[in-house]
C-alpha cells in the first residue's frame, strides 16, 4: 500500500520559541479526521519501536515533500491522547527558516502524518479504524486532515494543548449541531 497523508484545514494560535522548538499532537486517538479515519490507541507502537530498534527516526518534512526536510523530531511518542511530537526547526536550512517565520506569523500551524496502513478495520460508524500504522514522517502543513493536529503555542505544554483541543472540539460540535 502507498504512503498516505492526512491534511485538510488550518486554525490559529501558533508560535515557535526563540530556539525554534516546535511541539504538538500530530494525531489524536479516537478523533475522526476529515477523510473518515480514526486512529486507534497504540497504532504507532510497533512502528516507533521498529524505528528505535533500527536507530532511525521519524522525519520532519515541509508539506510532506521528501525533498524538503526542515528539522529534527527529538521526541515522538504515544501518550493517552495521541502521537505527541517535539522537535527543532533547523535555521541553517532555508525552508526551516521560512517555516519558523510562517508559524510565528500564524500562517502555518498544522501537523500532518505520512504513513502506510498496516492494519485497519471498519468501526460501527463505518469509519476506517487505523489499528497499526507504519509512521514515516510528520510534516508541518497548511491544511492538516485532522483539524486538531496543531503545533502548540509558545510555552504551551501537553496539558495546555489539551485544554485548547477540548475548546476546539466543543466549538466544532456546536457548529455541527447548528448545521454550519
From TrEMBL:
Keywords annotated in UniProt: Hydrolase, Protease, Viral release from host cell
GO biological process: proteolysis
Biological classification of the source: Bacteria, Pseudomonadati, Pseudomonadota, Alphaproteobacteria, Rhodobacterales
InterPro entries noted in UniProt: Peptidase_S78_dom (IPR054613), Prohead_protease (IPR006433)
Keyword Protease attached: yes
Residue span(s) of domain Prohead serine protease: 19-153
Cross-referenced Pfam families: Peptidase_S78
A GO term, aspect molecular function: peptidase activity
Stated name of the protein: HK97 family phage prohead protease
Amino acid at each position: 500500500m502507498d504512503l498516505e497523508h492526512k491534511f485538510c484545514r488550518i486554525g490559529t494560535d501558533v508560535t515557535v520559541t526563540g530556539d525554534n522548538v516546535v511541539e504538538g499532537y500530530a494525531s489524536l486517538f479516537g478523533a475522526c479526521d476529515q477523510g473518515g479515519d480514526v486512529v486507534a490507541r497504540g497504532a504507532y507502537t510497533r512502528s516507533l519501536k521498529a524505528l528505535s530498534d533500527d536507530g532511525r527516526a521519524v522525519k520532519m518534512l515541509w508539506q510532506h515533500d521528501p525533498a524538503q526536510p526542515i528539522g529534527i523530531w527529538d521526541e515522538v511518542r504515544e501518550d493517552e491522547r495521541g502521537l505527541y511530537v517535539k522537535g527543532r526547526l533547523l535555521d541553517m536550512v532555508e525552508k526551516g527558516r521560512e517555516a519558523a517565520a510562517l508559524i510565528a506569523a500564524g500562517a502555518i500551524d498544522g501537523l500532518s502524518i505520512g504513513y502506510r496502513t498496516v492494519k485497519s478495520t471498519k468501526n460501527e460508524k463505518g469509519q476506517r479504524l487505523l489499528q497499526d500504522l507504519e509512521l514515516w514522517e510528520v510534516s508541518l502543513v497548511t491544511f492538516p486532515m485532522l483539524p486538531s493536529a496543531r503545533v502548540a503555542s509558545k510555552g504551551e505544554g501537553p496539558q495546555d494543548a489539551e485544554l485548547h483541543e477540548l475548546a476546539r472540539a466543543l466549538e466544532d460540535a456546536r457548529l455541527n449541531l447548528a448545521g454550519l
